[in-house]
# Entry
Amino acid sequence: MSFEITTELLENISSYIEASNDKAIIVLFEEMHHADIAEIIDDISFDDAVYLIKLLDSEKTSAILMELDEDIREKILQNLSAKEIAEEVDELDSDDAADIIGELSEERQEAVMSQIIDEEHVREIEELLAYDENSAGGLMAKELVKVNENWTVLKCVREMRAQAEEVTRVHSIYVVDDQDKLMGRLSLKDLLITSTKTAISEVYIPKVDFVNVHDDLDEVSNKMRKYDLEAIPVVDDEGVLLGRITIDDIVDVIKEEADKDYQLAAGLTQDVEADDSILQLTKARLPWLFLGLLGGVGAFIIMEGFQDVFSKYAALFFFTPLIAAMAGNVGVQSSAIIVQGLANDDVKGSINSRLIKEMFLAALNGFVLAIFLFAFVWAYEGKIDLALAISVSLVIVIIVAGLIGTFVPLFLNKRGIDPAIATGPFITTSNDIFGILIYFMIAKMILGI
Amino acid sequence: MSFEITTELLENISSYIEASNDKAIIVLFEEMHHADIAEIIDDISFDDAVYLIKLLDSEKTSAILMELDEDIREKILQNLSAKEIAEEVDELDSDDAADIIGELSEERQEAVMSQIIDEEHVREIEELLAYDENSAGGLMAKELVKVNENWTVLKCVREMRAQAEEVTRVHSIYVVDDQDKLMGRLSLKDLLITSTKTAISEVYIPKVDFVNVHDDLDEVSNKMRKYDLEAIPVVDDEGVLLGRITIDDIVDVIKEEADKDYQLAAGLTQDVEADDSILQLTKARLPWLFLGLLGGVGAFIIMEGFQDVFSKYAALFFFTPLIAAMAGNVGVQSSAIIVQGLANDDVKGSINSRLIKEMFLAALNGFVLAIFLFAFVWAYEGKIDLALAISVSLVIVIIVAGLIGTFVPLFLNKRGIDPAIATGPFITTSNDIFGILIYFMIAKMILGI
# Structure
């Protein structure tokens, strides 16, 4: 019963469109979930997509638009008139409406807003557009169910029924005072099991989790995960209830954040998918590769500077890929641990204590690895001084690499820069260069060249 | 109003425990959320943690246990008697209860199960323990609200009230037939806005998303994300309703999966946190580093095999870190795109078409990079043949690295192995070796050595 896109289905759709068989199309999509239709639209030609969006009613297409890939949505919106977009926006909750409007050029924004009939909707969208998109305000919706603490239960239930029709999912009923300040909540479950004669002020739960409208989305998602919340109210600095954030939006935030961190660690500068065009993929991949190229050129220059060593200890040069690889791997490991710890808000203690811990850790790892390398070089090359020089350098390179990997994300985070950019090619490239430089310097010292 | 652990709070707690001031402790924790108490317990000494768990009532401690770090929970459970664990398990929903029991040794499992009073709870736990923990059955809870399609609304509301008291969050009311087969659902919102006189069979929504008990958790989370579901019913092959999965558990699954993939890409073999001990961190970091060491030794052996080239073209050797870095970076990029595409279920088409696309992509990237490298080597070394040899090799190395990075995760996935292990050190190490080997072979050929 799971939905799946078949070639047959796609062929049917395109033949209907070619024949302008609108009735068949409407029947076909009538019972289909908007997320499924969005998947189909991602897969068909752009002209067909625009045809479908213009044909289907805006209650359906507005929901479809929200599920489309951002670049496809952008292109479709460009093909709709301001009036058509306004019709879509009219159907959407305030948060989705603000997202759509926010994607338009300023000119178009005004044109669309002037076409929206519901003035309250316009006011709400304008309010939401003013918030930073990475803050609670940028994600919240204005639609929620709230009751006044001074109401009777009878009035409350009547008001709630009216409000509930506007709200996709109810979750919690928030209780406010006359100044609209958040006082507590009523749970739906309590409503199910409480007699209707009880007074609001007696039944509401005064303890309620909330976030400030300016809170970072990371904070919001950590709080909702920690307390297993399905919705959280958003208040301003005075405690006035402004909106609410639901878990389905937070799930998307968590997934996007995770994808972004993963892509940064893998050296991708943009959000790309396997099915994107070669040009899009190149734009995401080339920048870090170019950085890697510069790093490699740096390593070349360093090695050339040490080339007089070659006549006596050629083997030293043959270990440079090993040194670079170890420096890179250790750097990525230590930075990844810090980046993840920072995201989960469980990196405690000072930067110094982190660095001291990493020093011991890297020294331990380096020592174990150096023993193996020492044994190999001694056995293979038969030179104990060379084996010693390479192994000792390895330990020091690993310690330095670990320290750089630990320090850089902590430093970036302190400066308010996303520490995730420190993982991946950035760390491997800088560690390659530092690693090779340190390696030759230490080896030269030990070998007395 | 956000909860925060202060040194003062921790000192208070430890002084209460030292003085055995149980009353003060109980008062302190009375109003505190179990997730906050769990954070405190993660931070205090192990003996104090056990003291608190034994002191507080099991309604609270069972919820605390579920929020603890897995290794701390394991240690605490070892310090509780079978009877004490049974008391905790008694308080938990079936899914959490099964998780706790599943972490015990088989011997202890039996001892604990025999102490649980509620026989239905025992049966439910046993049922859940039988499912694969990565399947829908391994995550679902047995607690849910269901009504029979043949009931009157009056009976339905009465039954629901009783059931709702057992269920932490209601979400949906599932409608089943006499054979317990899932027929549809009643929404809470509909209940709010529908007259109580309506018959069940008339109001229920026959369209309901569900998953099979053997479905993979990835499928479950993709479905819940796609359709913005907050709970999904789980059925067996005959369509009989077995349990339900709620979004808070799926949020944890998404987060854990993302953390795991990130750690694999960064070369960490276990789930570690910044605050883990040096020994735990070493256990997670050393295995991949050792693989990197072996890769480096492989590169050394290859380079030594080409050492006769050195007298004429020493510069060739100075570019090996560059070649290795580019091969590694390209491999990680292409594998990350595939791994992420597979997780999101949007890698379409055959392996061959993927490989052909990657070949063009890598060739394009490689060509752009090679132009720069060519110009640099020619200008710096003044040898056009050397510049040509290095640049052409770079292009070929990048193409091969991209193909390996694309092929390996697709291959692993086909074999039913988690493709995420292909990213990170695995790809960089193998690409280092292949890259250097190809580089010298091509360069030798072009230079005619």
Q: What stands out?
A: The domain at 278-447 of chain B is CATH 1.10.357.20 (Tetracycline Repressor; domain 2). Chain B is about 65% helix and 5% strand. The longest helix of chain B spans residues 351-381.
